[in-house]
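Re: [ENG-882] Designed sequences occasionally contain unexpected residues at chain ends

Forwarding the minimal case from QA. Structure tokens:
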């Protein structure tokens, strides 16, 4: 029997038992679709996180108050401590101290309600310096950004995020020149930022930027008057990022009178470390979900083996007749392996199609993007074929070993 006849016979056997073949393929189909969606969710999440972190700026270091300890959680209330001050940032801005640092931007923030006429909108109010625009790689859509005079004179001005301007004034153009009120302090809108495209829980398009001096002297009380929430450091280039890290670390340790680096009361984070941390979490989830998909494929493979054993039993007289007419065991084995691999191939192709549909539909119901990977799909189909072959070996071998006389005597 030629290979063409073998394939034709195999397809005919599958076609004859459509319902049984469909149910057999179901496990593989679900497993392949699950694998494709798992890979897609992982790649989509990683791309989203990488884009959001890169959107923070380029060659960026983020210095936060407090630090993690190796044994007992956090030191100094990581993320909420008040161990960084404006004078720390001023020291880092010195070219003598840190020649590899291009620019520094400090921020202090709070949240509250902005009022424009009869419209109220709760948003983040961020106090920062004019270098924030450069360090965070943001652009102004309408009007202008803060300048040195705004900071020096503590002017009551603000630059709104695009979403904030939309909510309060219906758009960027209508916002510039208007006045919003925060805690009874009127702030003139001098500009609106271009959309950042952020899709994270922290919406960078929904905020009001004010001069740092205005925020600390007129808008924000408590420890925020003397401390800063974050110091953004832009290195002079990607090749000097490590040197800028060392300069910032050593200068802050010296300013804070800390002799041991492990006792630091601040944390310096790079974009690469943020991406690595996010990627590590995504990989863990991908492995977990991939394991579940693998179990589904295993169940599908067992289903293929069971159905092939049933097929061998049903066609035992056919096998005996073919052997009596001279068919060799390897031909019989090949016949059943082709049928098993065809079931795997069909389940893989249908699973890939279901995965493609899911990759397009799922983002409408969840907040995470799904990246459809043709490479992963091709690999998943190949895996499905291998599963069909692997779980078809035993039934095919059993059929090949049947003695013709015994097979023909079987009722």
């Amino acid at each position: 029997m030629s290979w063409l006849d073998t394939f034709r016979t195999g397809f005919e056997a599958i076609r004859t038992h459509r319902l049984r073949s469909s149910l057999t393929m179901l496990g593989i189909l679900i497993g392949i679709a699950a694998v494709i969606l798992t890979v897609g969710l992982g790649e989509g999440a990683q791309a989203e996180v990488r884009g959001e972190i890169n959107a923070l700026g380029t060659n960026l270091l983020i210095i936060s108050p407090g630090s993690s300890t190796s044994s007992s959680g956090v030191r100094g209330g990581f993320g909420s401590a008040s161990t960084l001050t404006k004078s720390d940032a001023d020291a880092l801005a010195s070219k003598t101290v840190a020649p590899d640092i291009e620019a520094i931007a400090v921020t202090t923030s709070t949240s509250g309600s902005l009022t424009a006429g009869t419209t109220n909108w709760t948003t983040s109010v961020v106090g920062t310096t004019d270098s924030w625009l450069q360090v965070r790689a943001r652009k102004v859509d309408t009007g202008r950004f803060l300048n040195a005079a705004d900071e020096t004179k503590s002017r009551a001005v603000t630059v709104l995020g695009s979403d904030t301007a939309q909510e309060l004034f219906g758009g960027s153009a209508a916002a510039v020149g208007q006045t919003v009120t925060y805690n009874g302090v009127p702030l003139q809108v001098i500009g609106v930022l271009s959309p950042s495209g952020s899709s994270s829980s922290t919406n960078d398009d929904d905020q009001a930027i004010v001069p740092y001096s205005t925020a600390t002297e007129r808008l924000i009380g408590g420890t925020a008057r003397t401390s800063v929430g974050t110091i953004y450091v832009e290195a002079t280039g990607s090749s000097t990022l490590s040197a800028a890290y060392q300069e910032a670390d050593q200068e802050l340790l010296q300013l804070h009178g800390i002799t041991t680096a492990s006792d630091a009361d601040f944390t310096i984070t790079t974009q690469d470390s943020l991406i690595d941390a996010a990627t590590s979490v995504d990989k863990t989830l991908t492995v977990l979900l991939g394991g579940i998909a693998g179990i589904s494929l295993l169940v599908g493979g067992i289903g293929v083996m069971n159905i092939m054993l049933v097929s061998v039993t049903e066609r035992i007289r056919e096998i005996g007749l073919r052997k009596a007419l001279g068919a060799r065991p390897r031909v019989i084995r090949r016949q059943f392996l082709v049928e098993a691999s065809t079931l795997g191939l069909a389940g893989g192709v249908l699973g890939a199609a279901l995965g493609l549909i899911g990759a397009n539909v799922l983002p409408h119901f969840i907040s995470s993007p799904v990246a459809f990977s043709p490479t992963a799909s091709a690999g998943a189909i190949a895996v499905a074929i291998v599963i069909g072959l692997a779980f078809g070996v035993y039934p095919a071998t059993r059929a090949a070993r049947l003695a013709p006389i015994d097979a023909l005597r079987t009722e």
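QA comment: On inspection the terminal residues look reasonable. The chain has a mean pLDDT of 83. Proposing we downgrade this to a documentation issue.
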